[in-house]
Structures are given as structure tokens and as C-alpha cells.
Amino acid sequence: MKTFYISTAIDYVNGSPHLGHAYEKVLTDVIARFRRMMGDDVYFLTGTDEHGQKIQQSARAKGIEPQAFVDSIAPQFEEMCAKLEISNDDFIRTTQDRHKQVVCELLQKLYDKGEIYKAEYKGYYSTRQEQFLQEKDRNEDGTWPEIFGEVSEITESNYFFKLSAYQQWLIDHIKSHPDFIFPRYRAKQVLEFLSEPLNDLCISRPKDRLEWGIPLPFDPEFVTYVWFDALTNYYSAVADKPGIWPATFHVIGKDILVPPHAVYWPIMLQASGIELPQSILAHGWWSINGSKMSKSTGNFVEPIEFVDNYGVDALRYFLIREMSVGQDSDFSLDQFLVRYNSELANNLGNLVNRTLNMTNRFADATIPAVADEGEPEAALRALWPKTRDEVIGLFEEFQFNMGLERAFAFITATNAYIEQRAPWKLGKSEDPVDQALLRTALATMAEALRLGASLLLAVIPGSVAKIHGVLGYSAEGDWKSQLEWDHRLTGNAVEKTCILFPRPEKKS
Q1: Contact (Cβ atoms closer than 8 angstroms) between residue 204 and residue 158
Q2: Rounded Cα gap, residues 300 and 331, in angstroms
Q3: Which of 52, 305, 381, 437 has its CA 20 to 30 A from that of 117?
Q4: Which domains does the chain have, with CATH numbers?
Q5: pLDDT tens-digit profile of 94-126?
């Protein structure tokens, strides 16, 4: 079985993790968990990008060595992954020897093939983006876009990779592989970029300007351009692990689709004789309260602190429920609390506690066997396979927000079923018919809860595990076999209560 290999972009350690970092990890984790649930052999990589001029400058500003600087920041990203319950199989740092060795091997291979040459370059350079610029990068008024920061004109000798020689090959590959860029409409953006002639890529920086990087194996007076270094992580992490490469999906932000991931990376691989990834998934950006995220203005969400305040599954749920993959979305505490209260606490949480409470009151805390089903049970039972199949189909297409909507519609229907059957009324009756209806109602509530919760496993795994636990359920076998309505909980002892999502206090 081919490994489902999925990766995130590696985070640049020039600052602390923010909401965008958290979203990318959670999105990729949901995909990874879902594919495992579907039976795939998944390998999930994330990590940190630790070389380059900005790191060197930040370290000097603190009066410490660059390695000490990145060693102080990288653990924050590992802590964030742990806090968000990210199920990554590996965490790569570009300062690790295993990575640097592969970068040098690729560089030497390309140099030996004649794909890298030395030339003098005169042009404009953005320190912030650590890249050379062209005239076409200017604004219409001749100024440079703010994203480039300070731009200076420099002349220096450097090594160049023959990017331009592969331009038509890449155009043909994108057109003949419609799944290479996801969402597909972003392929148009890449092809528009490729409609202009490509320049060869400067893949070195002289050591007298930048020391903090991987030295070129064929000329130690130069270090490797940070993008050539960083992009190689997806391959370097698994180069010694047979059967994993090529990647199934690289999950990245839309801002680094063009040119790094959709132009530089596939051409680097093709020139090296390495198979290309199946697809690059480019997600959107989060704004906060309608404005761009900014630490300086305080318009900022610190993921670890937020989890401490509201719980990991609440944040995971909101990020996946609120954003349509590929599109932009806005994060506001008010909207978060709306979803938290209406969907997690009042809908799912309420169903859990109604089920436990009534099973304790009317069945000695033991889920009864179902008696004869009536029309309400038949209607809810008929809704289940339709819901299950829709959710799985939507998840397979990365439409997680819509899948969650369908799953919660089933949970809402289960709560409506409880109102219709009114077990609290049946429990007061001594009529054998009513008692049979009561047993059926309690069994149906428990089964619907088990199944509905199982659809949420990839998104809120901790909460689903708690639900299964209070129902006395140990999920065994493959996940899809667990999605059959079969009253397998009959006879299970249940807990008295379970507060999954406590009422939050709004924190500013």
C-alpha cells in the first residue's frame, strides 16, 4: 500500500507561533487523521525553517549565535503542535544534519549535471523576503510593495540554477495534471506567473553577506539560498525511508504557492530526477476581527494561550468549521463563542448529558436493548447512512466545514428525536408499551450519539474519546466498520455525567 505522505510548510522561526501556523497544522492533522481512519498508511511531517538573513539579524540583535537563537524559538512550534494534539510522525528542523546532508547531495548532483552555474548579478534585493527582485515586481508608481521591505541594489557573483530551462515542462505538467494544484482554480494563478519568461534562480549568497546557511558543497565561500534549503525538507525528512516519497500532499499557505512551491520546488525535483508530489494544497489566510493579523497592533491570537482558555478541541473545531479550505476567513471571539455555545455545548454537549442522565435515571446506568422501533426511530436510523456517506464524501474532497455541518445536522436531529419521544414522560408510566418505548428511546439515543460523535473523530479527537469513554465503548476494528448502526452499546454501563464544553467566560 502506497504511503499517504502529507506535510505542512515548515515555519520560519523568526517569531512565535500565531493563528495561521495553528490553522495549517490543524488542517493537515485533520486530513492525516481522516486518511488513517479510511485505512491509509499515513506519514505526516511538519517542522521549522531555521536559516537565512533574518535569523542572522535577529540573533545579532540579541547578541547570541544564530544556532542559540533558533534553539530558543523552534521548541515553541513543537509545543504548539503538542498543545493542538497534532499527530505528526516527524518534526524536521533545517539545522539538523540529516537535512543539511540531503541539501548538499542535491546541490552537488545538480552542479555535476551542469544545472548550476556561476555568474555575476546586478539587481535589486529584498532583505525581508531574502530574494532578488525584477522590474515587474514594482508597483505601478515605481515603488516596491510593502511586502519586500527595504530594497537595495547590489552587484555580486553568485550561483544560479537553470530554472528557465524547465518553464515549458512545468506548464505542460500543470495542464496535464489537473490535481497538481488544489484548489484547482489556483492553477490559473501559477500559469499566469509562468506566462512571463522565467529567470534562472540565484541559489547562493556570499558568506561575506550571509554566514547563517548551509555552505555550498562545491564552493564553501557561499551558503545556500534559504528557499532551496527549506523546500528540500519534504524530501530530506524521508530520503532514507523507503516507500514514502513522493508526497501525496504538501499543505501550504496561498502566499507561498507562487513561486516557491509551484515553480521552484517541482523544477528542482525534475532537474534532480526525483518524482514530483501528487498535489500542493494552498489554503487561505485568517484575518482577525476583519483586519490583518498584527502583533504590533494587538490584533493577534496566541494559539497556546487560547487553548489554555477555551480547550484544544474548541479551537480545532472552530478553525475547521469556520474556514472553507482554500478561501480566506475571519477569526473573531464573538463568532468563536457563537459556535462554541450553539454547536459544541448546547448541541453535542447537551446530547451527551441527556443520554447519560436519562440512562442513569431510567435504566440503572446501563444502555438497554432496543425493543420494537417506531416511526421516529426509523426516521433517525434512515438519516444515518445518508449523513455518514455525505460526510465521508465531503471530507474526501477537503470540504470539512460542510462535512461538519452535515454531522451536526444529525446531532440536531437526534436531539429533536429526544424531544419527540420524551423519555422523561415515558419513564413515569408503568404501561409495558411505554416502558418498551423508553428502552428503545434510550438505546437509540446512545447509538445515534456514538455514531454522530465518530464522524467528528478527525476534528475533535479528545472529545470523541471522552464520549466513547462515558458510553463504555471501546472503538475496535477499522473506523468504517464502526459506522454501522447496530446497537453494539447494549449492556454497556455509562457514566453519570460528562462536561465536554464548559460554559466559557469571554476573555479579552
Answers
A1: yes
A2: 10
A3: 52
A4: 332-483 (1.10.730.10)
A5: 999 999 999 999 999 999 999 999 999 888 988
